[in-house]
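Quick one:
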Amino acid sequence: MDTIDFTDLPRRNKMYAGANGNKICVIYEDMPYMLKFPPTAKKNKEMSYSNSCFSEYLGCQIYESIGIPVQKTLLGTFMVKGREKIVVACGDFTEPGIVLQDFASLKNQMIDSERNGYGTELSDILQTFDEQTAIDKKEITERFWNMFIVDAFIGNWDRHNGNWGFLYNTRTDEMKLAPVFDCGSCLYPQADEDIMNSVLEKPSEMDFRIFEIPTSAIMINGKKIKYFDFISSVQNEDCNRALLRILRCIDMERIGQIINETPFISDLQRRFYLAMLTERKKRILDYSAGLLNKKVRK
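Output:
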């Protein structure tokens, strides 16, 4: 695959918030892109930089393969003080008059709520879906649970209220769902070669990264949800429906092709990513769907 050198592209003064890595705006093929640089690996001191650029790219590519609207992502390079860095370019889907507003902003409109917009208690989020009037309830509910299932599949631990939301038209006052964005915390971005080898060789290490970590950023009674525990409980009907919707759209052959065609990553990374996705689908999603089918037949 041909790779892109973003170093000398025209830049814009637009700035981006967010804690994970530096970001600049460049113009590529007449379109604005946010370039995300790899942040330091805070939780793994053995790594100089995390693999979050690969996580961002692959997570978004997987979302696209499933058929959920998502930001466009490209991998490339950028020279910084004579050193080449691998970066991910994320398509900027805003435009003059069309601004991004996160779910936390919508949640803040619920003036009777005791929790602020960034609180991720599930009951509070679901209450917001019921009470808000800016967007169709069925549409926002389906997007939330679709993301929950895909994030369970790709192992995303950071889908909070600030990194999903809506596009607001300042001229017409209309609002619609924004494409999915910010997948840099999926696929174990701080897993180095030792961790990858250990997971591939030791069933206990694989089990830990399927059933225990990552957790969702969504909470129940102040405790972060474990994806397996919640989905396999088959207690939430909207989650159940999303599980079946998403499973019908997951094409592991296509996902394997995406991983094999991803530039810059090593053969070990390819094996690790594919193994984790295969096992998470089988042991979380497929298993839970089996339990759901048994429940329906009773």
